[in-house]
Design goal:
It comes from Staphylotrichum tortipilum. The chain has 260 residues and is an alpha/beta fold. The protein has one domain: 3-Layer(aba) Sandwich (Rossmann fold), CATH 3.40.50.720. 43% of the residues lie in helices and 15% in strands. Helix 1 (17-28) packs across helix 7, helix 3 (68-82) runs parallel beside helix 4 and helix 4 (106-133) runs parallel beside helix 5.
Length: 260
């Protein structure tokens, strides 16, 4: 596995699921890891798990990524403890309920866009400010996107738009900041077993879901992307020799589902 020795990494939504797998991979590779999440119970579990063996190498902080002041506090806390910031992984996100435009409530639309798009915007903005003022200048941002970033008929309207917009944010950020040594990369993931599907517990728009299922080959457990593989790929993309070349790329990592 690649080394991240001495780097400081913030992973959002990292107290469980994919985010925790990413944080764990960076911790194992020698990084200082800042785990942020809105769920205090999950954060307490991470604290209990890591405090004995990694006490000086990690920080947990309850953070709502849609709150600009809270995001700034997160970055400030990371720098205060570890001296600088090198990597931001924008992983925090929620799924919608597969509602098409005409059935999507304004409340659902606002919540999904707030967390999946406004959150990464705010964390990226705060991280860039830190990247620009530290010595040496620079850093890497990885945005966790989805096959829905590219394919317009893989989820509900709100989730699709949020992830497509996140891909645009990735490319725009990469275009302006790349020559400053600040790189932004997108990772467009396929189906995984993560806690993002908690939203389905409240039901989903079954007509939309059925139409999406009928438009593609059926999803099966063997087509799930292992979250540990995603974590390894994130680590690889932050390598100093890889990040500049990957800047602006939005890489499909989906076990070829839906098929290319």
């Amino acid at each position: 596995m690649a080394s991240a020795q001495g780097k400081t990494v913030i992973v959002t939504g990292a107290a469980g699921g994919l985010g925790k797998a990413i944080a764990t991979a960076f911790l194992a590779a020698g990084a200082n890891v800042v785990v942020c999440d809105v769920n205090p119970e999950r954060l307490a579990s991470v604290d209990a798990e890591w405090s004995q063996s990694h006490a000086d190498k990690f920080l947990t902080q309850q953070t709502d990524v849609t709150d600009e002041a809270a995001v700034q506090k997160l970055v400030d806390s990371a720098v205060s403890k570890f001296g600088r910031l090198d990597v931001l992984i924008n992983n925090a996100g929620i799924m919608d309920d597969f509602s098409p435009t005409g059935a999507c409530s304004k409340e659902k639309w606002d919540r999904v866009l707030d967390i999946n798009l406004n959150g990464p915007f705010l964390t990226t903005k705060a991280a860039i400010a830190q990247f620009e003022k530290q010595d040496p200048v620079g850093g890497v941002i990885i945005n966790i996107g989805s096959v829905a970033s590219i394919h317009g008929f893989k989820s509900g309207a709100a989730y699709t738009v949020s992830k497509a917009a996140l891909m645009a944010l990735t490319k725009n950020t990469a275009g302006f900041y790349g020559d400053k040594g600040i790189y932004c990369i997108g990772l467009m993931l396929g189906g995984m077993q993560t806690n993002i599907t908690d939203a389905f517990s409240q039901g989903m728009h079954m007509e939309m879901f059925a139409k999406i299922q009928a438009s593609q080959s059926p999803f099966a457990p063997e087509k799930q992307v292992p979250i540990e593989s995603v974590a390894k790929y994130c680590l690889f993309l932050t390598d100093k020799d890889i990040a500049p070349s990957a800047n602006g790329s939005c890489n499909l990592f989906n076990k070829n589902w839906p098929e290319a």
